[in-house]
Design brief:
Length: 255
């Protein structure tokens, strides 16, 4: 297997983001961009505990099992993972949606602090979720679904991202041909942006808390809803419900 590792571009200038990266379909780290989000200063353990009290989000265990855990217990676990033992290995909170909120006011409160800090121009259909886990938790190579743009704001801790351009037709873990892997080391306050269809794999180096966002234009969201209706995926119903909620934002966010 021949791979080439290249450090991903990292910029501090937010004007450069649109001109040189977003418009050109290039991934990038924007250092410090996550600091501009309300979440960066406001989301202490105490705030999360109070705001999300009573929720039991879905978590992923190291052995691949899924489960639910009271959010208060998960916050304690994240602060001192070694104090807990689970026969299923480490616990990763992934894809915990705060937008769409499906009517949960606790999630809506958090979502208000979690908007994309580099937004410019017209309305986007978007969804936002939380990722939190101790050192060693990870996400395997994948492409985000429905060819949306992806961003992740690192609120706490450090992650290593590996990226690969979309133009390969198998997951990079199976790639035999030449493949250029871009690596990025994210620390608290950084934001990473990925254009649609870029492959990525992520490893937490320390306990982390991050906000992950996906967005597309509303026309693409309508097409995705139509596609979901004809899909035979087991996630079909979830996606119909999700896109319906995302499209309902349109009336709310238009001037
Ligand atoms: O941080 C992670 O573990 C994965 C994040 C991810 O895949 C995403 O934001 O799309
Ligand atoms: Fe992803």
């Amino acid at each position: 297997m021949t791979t080439h590792n290249t450090k991903l571009a990292c910029i501090a200038d937010q004007d450069e983001f649109y001109e040189d990266f977003f418009m050109k379909g290039r991934p990038v780290v924007v250092a410090g961009a996550a600091r501009r989000m309300g979440a960066f200063s406001r989301w202490t353990d105490m705030h999360l505990r109070t705001t999300l009290a009573g929720l039991r989000p879905m978590v992923r265990f190291e052995d691949g099992r899924l489960g639910r855990i009271p959010v208060e217990s998960f916050i304690d676990y994240l602060a001192a993972p070694d104090m807990f033992s689970s026969s299923h290995g480490s616990i990763y909170l992934t894809d915990f949606y705060i937008k769409p909120s499906f009517g949960d006011s606790r999630c809506e409160t958090l979502a208000a602090d979690a908007t994309f800090p580099l937004r410019r121009g017209g309305p986007f259909a978007e969804w936002i979720s939380l990722y939190a886990g101790p050192a060693g938790t990870s996400t395997a190579w994948h492409q985000d679904i429905f060819s949306t743009h992806t961003w992740l704001a690192q609120l706490r801790g450090e992650k290593i991202w590996r990226l690969c351009a979309p133009d390969i037709d198998v997951s990079p873990s199976e790639v035999v041909a030449d493949c250029e892997i871009y690596e990025a080391f994210l620390t608290a306050g950084d934001l990473i942006y990925l254009p649609p269809d870029w492959w990525h794999q992520v490893q937490n180096q320390t306990s982390t808390l991050a906000i992950s966002g996906n967005f597309c234009c509303f026309a693409d969201a309508e097409a995705a809803l139509a596609e979901a209706r004809f899909s035979d995926s087991p996630r079909r119903d979830v996606w119909i419900r999700t896109w319906t909620e995302i499209l309902a934002q349109k009336s709310g966010s238009m001037p």
